[in-house]
Fold this sequence. Notes:
By secondary structure, the protein is an all-alpha fold. 68% of the residues lie in helices and 0% in strands. The two termini are 18 Å apart.
Amino acid sequence: MSGCLDNCGECCSNISCTCGIIDTDWLAERRNAISSILAGSLFAVGWWIAIDVGAVDSDHFSKAYWTCGVFGTIGLLMVNAVSNSQLRGDAYVPGALGTSGTRVWMVIGFLCSFGALIGASFILFGEYVYKKIEPSYPGTGFFMQNLLIFMATIIFKFGRVEDSY
């Protein structure tokens, strides 16, 4: 599944930096750490924005708007709970339902993530933009939260590589 970013280190290694600022070997060696830190930072900032919305404008939104962030977080956990080798069927222990069960789990995780993003889009555009409710910060905040959680999900899943040990 991480095949779309597997050649990232190879394409960067052909670039010669005459100034000596960028060390492409260092980036290729620490790809897992960089993508994990970036995904974790995006996730933390997303929830920070939602907590800020709750602290600043708690009177201007329904308490049900928090469910989008919760489902986005559940989607992040579901998508990243399975390894790429389990999806391909290369795992030593296939699990309870095997490769097809792992793929169904992954699809359900992505559905949770997409559903949370679509729900946050409806909150922003259906409730705050269309009805022109002021202030629109709660709608923008919850949308940004779910967008950042979705980006963290994608970066954490496809930005890392699995080394065979």
